[in-house]
Amino acid sequence: MKLGRNVLVFVVVGCFSLSAQQITGNIRGTVTDPMGAIVQGATVTVEQSETDLSRTVTTDRTGSYVVLELPVGHYRLQVTAKGFHEYVQEGISVNVNETASVSPHLAIGSEIEVVQVNADADLIAPTVTSMGKVVGKRELEDLPLNGRNLSQLGLLQPGVVPITPGLVEAGGGLRDGQPYSVNGQRPESNNFLIDGADNFNGVDGGYVLKPPVDAISEFLIITHNASAEFGHALGSTTNILTRSGTNSIHGALWEFLRNDVFDARNYFQTQDLPLKQNQFGATIGGPIQKDKIFFFGYYEGFRNRQGVTALTTVPSVQERTGNFAELCPEGFTNGFCNNPANQLFNVFANAPYPNNQLPSINPISQGLLHYFPEPNAGTNLYSASGVINNDSDQFGIKVDDYLTPQDNLNFRYSFYQSSDVNPLSPQGASVPGFPVGEDQ
Predict the structure, then answer these.
(1) Least confident of 220-234, 291-305, 348-362
(2) Cα dihedral sign, 149-151-156-159
(3) Domain range annotation of the chain
């Protein structure tokens, strides 16, 4: 069987102080003096470490401030007010769909003196009722993943389990994009996004694109009670955020190899089955225009040659001559099987075949018998081995243009292509070498 699949996603998103599905974070807090009194009119500036993106706001009459729609990353916060030391806090992490809380306490004194703080911010969600977890870059790159499949990290969350073997067997290839079930919901109930854009496959209820882990900044899995901006699914919502370029050139190069040369033979294995798998790729990102326009690109290829063995049912040696007496191991009495359930019956003549023997074989059927191999693993079983070929290629590019401190333009282009060739048919004709499938 041969299956092919091509997927193309082209997205241009303009962010002008609004968004559909959330792909950014926020920083908020209250500025106070040493006695706990609010400081009104203080200037609060946040600056992203990776791109030097800067936003400035002023505290209101309650001493509060909020900086909205910040790209995920690490930030430096600076607070200045007349009659107080300048306050600077480094190392603030902003994750997708989360709000970091930073409430500076200003010290009275000269404005030219600086109070430096190195600490991350607390996370607050005063108006968010959903439950979920952000999986960051460190987990993506450091935790072992079979096949570099990012969705396996979703199983670390409570209520998330892999789909059962029964569902996998029943669905076959239609469940390739279904990574897990959440809180008892069917895997078709999940929703998938990339950078806030739809990544949901309506055919099998799974994801469409699965970028390599080196191209992902983080992803958020909302496991319960998603807010209205997500909707669409009763199960979970998985929002993947791809990496962006920064002011410095950065990249990665990888090659993962699996080969039967390094494998021990299974005790019950009668012959060597080939296994040659290569997973390779690269990423690169950097500035097009410093502090303003950034790019990030990736490519990953996958090549797999894996031997498989399958058992299939074929006509026995006696059945090829029209003798089906083997269907009645209980024996015959007066030409009839002692077990009526195993009696061969002629529905056209409304009469049984004596001793389960056909009087003749249709010439067309005799011609078809030449295409069925003789059994080699039992009375009606034929064992065959073959090599499954699985190839895929994917690449993507992302460009971020910070038009103004409040407005930015994002461009993404993603492509995925795969081809599967299976010489042993999983459905249709039960004869090795005669697969039933289709090109998609």
Answers:
(1) 220-234
(2) negative
(3) 19-124, 130-241, 244-314+380-440, 315-371
For domain 130-241, the question of CATH label 3.40.50.1110 is answered with: no
3-state DSSP call for residue 68? strand
Rg, Å, the chain Cα set: 32
Closest CA to 200 of 217, 187, 185: 187
DSSP state of 141: H
Nearest to 321 by CA among 361, 355, 354: 361
Q: What is the CATH number of domain 19-124?
A: 2.60.40.10
pTM of the model: 0.74
Tokens in use for 326?
Answer: 């083997």
Cα–Cα distance for residue pair 141/248, rounded to 1 Å: 20
436/398 Cα distance (integer angstroms): 39
DSSP assignment of 143-168: S--GGG-GGGGGGGSTTEEPPPHHHH
Buried b (16+ CB within 10 A) or exposed e, 402-439: beeeeebebebebbbebebbbbbbeeeebbbeebebee
For residue 361, the one-letter residue type is: I
Per-residue pLDDT of 233-261, as tens digits, reads: 777 888 888 999 999 999 999 999 988 88
Q: What share of the chain is helix, strand, coil (3-state, %, to 5)?
A: 10, 45, 40
Residue with tokens 């050139």: 249
Place of tokens 């009763």: 234
Q: Give the tokens for residue 300.
A: 């990953």
